[in-house]
Amino acid sequence: MTDVLTEEALPEVSEQRARPRVGFVSLGCPKNLVDSEVMMGLLDRAGAEITADAGSAEILVVNTCSFIDKAKQESVDAILEMAKLKTEGSAKKLIVAGCLVERYRDEIQKNIPEVDAVVGTGELEGILAAAGIQMPAAVVTNSPFNILSGAVRETAGPSAALPSVAPVGMTSFRAEGDRREEQGRFSRATWDGAGAQLPQYLYDHTTPRLRATRSASAYIKIAEGCDHPCSFCVIPNLRGKFRSRRLESVVSEAEALVGEGVREITLIGQDTTCYGEDFGLKDGLAALLDRLAQVEGLAWLRFLYAYPNRVTGRLLETIAKHENICKYLDVPLQHAAGPVLKTMKRGGGAEIFLKMIEKTRRAVPGIALRTSFIVGFPGETDADFEALCDFVAEARFDWLGVFAYSDEEGSKAFDLEKKVPKRVIEQRRRALMKLQKGISRQTMRERVGREFDVLVEGESEETPLLWEGRTQFHAPEIDGTVYINDFGSLEGVTPGRFYRCEVTEAHDYDLVVRVLGESLPGKAEELAAAGVGQ
Ligand code: SF4
Fold first, then answer.
1. Pocket probe mutation, ligand 1, options 121, 270, 333, 406, max atoms within 8 Å of Cβ
2. 3-state helix, strand, coil in the chain (%, to 5)
3. φ, ψ for residue 331, nearest 5 deg
4. Cα 99 to chain center, whole Å?
5. What is the Cα Rg of the chain in Å?
6. pLDDT at residue number 523
7. Which residues of the chain have pLDDT under 50?
């Protein structure tokens, strides 16, 4: 068991380590970004200085992604780049965190000797021990660390100096998860260099977090892990069984974020539609959304990602009912051909999905739908691909991502025969993107002349003549861009504020708008009183 710092130890610690500078590289998805924010928050709370300038940092942290081969390569490249700063620059310590650690824990340190410590996704608070920084005792008393003495040490290795903390309220998993574990779903037995134990950690509202997102927008991770059996996916092996945060904890975090000036909250998790099932909640996400929609000052609330068979009537009613819940649904379908979905171990098919889409559009008129597909899954025939294209043409998604199948060792699909040649996979990916481009172009054109609330994000990275923003139909950093080229009667616009805008031009995925005036989305009465958008 780790000793909690004593008062006497503090002066020595602060003298020796006067605000060590820590540089962070965060790769991968928003879920990984939240992990980075938690680690930065812990380091900041413990007295470290977080810097955006890696060249001047004494401690470097690379929070890695290991979802597919391309992501792994990107992670390794980033580690090697930071290792160079250690051998040739001023950095003294290099720490690797995240999904790559869950998979290649021993191998990372063996093959990249510059790496001093590793921190898995289930041991985020271990970042302090890895960095050699201790939490001051005064802070320990008021933080999640005050329950350390009752916690169980989860892993061995350099990051195990601090035990993992079971978050308050996280007492059980879903029966489905336990059943899948018995069937071997989460096994890492075939992974060389990976620790056997699954991550269990999940932060809560008392955990310090240093946000890296733009000021008006923030993510909240409401759940971690996944119990689904998708045969192409290794995320459950990397992130563990599904577990949710307590509803009150999420609400407390949302209230605190809004208190700090956040206007848009995006709830994330591998599958947010399972939220609360581990507490025995039915339609838990709908209950959570209902509660969060009442947080005073929250203008936009959305969630990523939905599992197709969990888009319930209650969930749709909830989205429709609250003005400040974005009319936006990201439901990754992965494929539409029955035989491929069956081998993917997901089930469903074009007909079922079209019914779900119709139900969704009926319940929430005007809702923007996003999905993603994998092309070139083992055994995918020309006919399967055609069925997918037919489905895409009929469903007419607002946003669509297409991924080329990546053969991941340790996934069930890795052992499947009838692998599709890489050249064919690429052809199919391009063909599907081309089809969607035509659909998107038409959807964008239909928006010309219409008015939307736009959250301004800042000057465009392409040119200072344009500003960028998003409507409620654009999730952060994922969908097309809204360019502002005309401020109307206003002198200018301010990042983090909402403006009523009219669409003047449409491109394949992007819109160009002109500002009509400032707006207050989610507050119809205030909007009317301000005479905006009438
Ligand atoms: S739902 Fe399927 S694809 Fe998504 S994280 Fe879970 S196992 Fe992976």
1. 270
2. 40, 20, 45
3. -125, 95
4. 13
5. 24
6. 54
7. 1-17, 140-170, 525-534
The CB-side HSE value for 302 (13 A sphere, CA atoms) comes to: 24
Give this prediction's pTM.
0.88
Helix axes 313-321, 284-292, angle to 10 degrees: 10
Q: Which atom of ligand 1 is nearest to the CA of 236?
A: 7
Q: Please name the residue whose Cα sits nearest to atom 1 of ligand 1.
A: 228
Q: Are 25 and 75 a contacting pair, CB within 8 Å?
A: no
Inter-residue contact 7 to 137 (CB < 8 Å): yes
Residue 386: how many CB atoms within 10 A of its CB? 12
Q: Is 226 in the pocket of ligand 1 (CB under 6 A)?
A: yes
Phi first, then psi: what are they for 118, rounded to 5°?
-125, 145
**How is residue 99 written in tokens?**
């999904």
Contacts for 183 with CB less than 8 Å, ≥ 6 apart: none
Give the pLDDT of residue 139: 59
CB 271 less than 6 A from any atom of ligand 1: yes
Residues 318, 295: Cα–Cα separation, whole Å: 15
Ligand 1 closest atom vs CA 229: 7
Which residues, listed in sequence order, are joined to residue 150 by a DSSP beta bridge? none
Distance 229 CA to ligand 1 centre (A): 7
Q: Which tens digit of pLDDT belongs to each residue from 263-272?
A: 999 999 999 9
pLDDT digits (tens, 9 = 90+) for 121-166: 999 999 999 999 987 766 544 433 322 222 222 222 333 322 233 3
Cβ 46 vs Cβ 133: under 8 Å: yes
Rounded distance between C-alpha atoms, residue 394 and residue 387, angstroms: 11
Distance separating alpha carbons of residues 262 and 409, to the nearest angstrom? 40
Per the CB < 8 A criterion, the answer to whether 436 and 402 are in contact is yes
Residue 249 contacts residue 220 (beta carbons within 8 Å):
no
pLDDT in tens, 225-281: 999 999 999 999 999 999 999 999 999 999 999 999 999 999 999 999 999 999 999
